[in-house]
Each structure stands twice: as C-alpha cells, then as structure tokens.
Design brief:
By secondary structure, this protein is an all-beta fold. The protein has a single domain, classed as Ribonuclease Inhibitor (Leucine-rich repeat, LRR (right-handed beta-alpha superhelix)), CATH 3.80.10. Helices cover about 0% and strands about 15% of the residues. The radius of gyration is 12 Å and the shape is globular. It starts with 12 loop residues before the first strand and ends in a 13-residue tail after the last strand. The relative contact order is 0.23.
Amino acid sequence: MPMGLKHLSSLQDLSLTGCIKLKIESDIFSALTTLTYLDLSGCIEVETIHNGLFNLVSLKELYYKDCTNLKKIHTTFVGIINLKIL
C-alpha cells in the first residue's frame, strides 16, 4: 500500500475520478475501513480491483463507470454489508 493511504484510516469519501494513469495495487484500500464513498470512474488504466475492498465494511457507494480496461474484481462483497450503490 502506498505509504500515505495507510495513515488515512478515518477517511470517509475518496474520489479518484479521471485519474487516467491510476493502477490499483493489491491491498491499496484495505486500511480505509471507514470509507463510505469510493469513485474510480474514468480510471481507464485500472484493470483489476483486488481483495482490499473486502475490508471496507462501511462502504455504501462504489462507482467505476468508464473503467474501460477493468477486467476482474477479485473480491467478495460479503464483507461489504453497507453497500447500496454499485
């Protein structure tokens, strides 16, 4: 995980909309357990979403519109019990 993200454990909203060069590494979001909103829309380099999402038990909204290279989501949504919008 990038060093900066592990220190953002109280972060609730994260919009990475239009980060066209963003590549998601394995557990980049795993420490963001209070995250309620995650927007990856327009992140065209994202190919895979890894298991780190499993820890996002507070996540209510996940957006990934126009992630044109997204091929796999390697996570189970069982732990994301508050998810309302996908």
